[in-house]
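Hi team,

Below is the intake form for amidase from Mycolicibacterium madagascariense. Please confirm the fields before the structure is written into the shared record.

FORM ID: S-0412
PROTEIN: amidase
ORGANISM: Mycolicibacterium madagascariense
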Amino acid sequence: MDPRELAFTGAAEQARLLAAGAITAPALLDVYLDRIARFDRELRSYRVVLVDSARREAAAAQDRLDAGERSPLLGVPVAVKDDVDVAGEVTTFGSSAYGPAPTQDSEVVRRLRDAGAVILGKTCVPELMVWPFTETLTFGATRNPWNPDLTPGGSSGGSAAALAAGLAALALGSDGMGSIRIPATWSGLFGLKPQRDRVPLAPHDGAWGGLSVYGPLARTVEDAALFLDVTASEGGFVEAARREPGRLRIALSTAVPPLLTARVGRAQRAAVAEAGALLRELGHEVVERDPDYPANAVFAQALPRYFRGVHDAAAALPRPERLDRRTRTFARIGGLVSERRSAAIRAAEADVTARVTEIFDDVDVVVTPGTATGPSRIGAYQRRGAVSTLALVAARVPFQAMFNVTGQPAAVVPWGLDGAGVPTSIQLVGRPFDEATLLSLGTQLETARPWAGRRPPLS
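The structure came back. Fields below:
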């Protein structure tokens, strides 16, 4: 098989090829190591590539395959975001303020290893995962393989760029305010924010006051479902992805949650309209209806937890004085959110969730734009402070944070390209605990409008 085509083959298909003996785990790893050497000097998607340990893991995986063992990801190279612990390698959180290397894997990495995954490396993030662009003073800027002048997004920007450029088979991300869905959108990938607590966060439980979750950035819906099957406490997600969704009632919405200032672009509105037309052709009932977003939910729920989460993350670092000035400002603002205030915010969450999810008494899925606009240029916010940067970036990505507050699952499905040649997406929002419907509908859309064969210019 042509190495370039193999690199862009999804994780599930690679696992099948490995099990059939069509490829070997060391040879598959070499494909990615070669491509990383060729392309990542410009992209900067990886903070570190774990060459030696990955070679050992690939060799061990091949021994297990040769002995007849079969595991869901046996021999498949997976990239891990650098806010997740990999034993023996520092977790930098995009900063030079980090502490010693952990001695144990995060639980999600342990589960990936148990499924046979080869841990390829750790991918770049913005400092403390604050921003929807991936640029740091310590590790530089990660670029979008569709247009290297632009960011791939953040905070799982390195994971998205690596996967989009064919430098990994599957990538682990985290999502506290859209950090899987934003870079998946701008990198042309399927990205899934699972239901809160679906995938274990240990030892980083409770990150960002319960906003944050771990989830996959994937080339196909099946790959994302496979990730959930091996990392969640319950399975059946691949089976769900293969089922027909049946006739669903689907609401289209381009409404921006109250108090956010954002103008939804032409390409993003077109994606929702085109999705509505396709969904009707597929037999679904499609209506136009907005969720009942509480007037102050983003400012009273999402932002205080976000600021306080950054404060707590900064306070846990051994050398916080090394943080960028903008990050330190962000953390100081978070320090103004007291423990008492944080508890009150969490106590009010149920009422917000009930109001936002009331729409699901009448519909099965809500479709929104993936983002309001395309990504920013590299360095666009370099000289700005914390508050002005936040105001500007929030206008690009208003559709994510609400569903971190409610905790319900949401996925982005690749759609077209905007005027800058950067991918767009639609966001599918499901009922609480109903990833199955999103996966089933995602597969139906993937079949009707395939995206996995697209290749960015820098690949």
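SUMMARY LINE: The CA atoms of residues 286 and 393 lie 31 Å apart.

Thanks, M.
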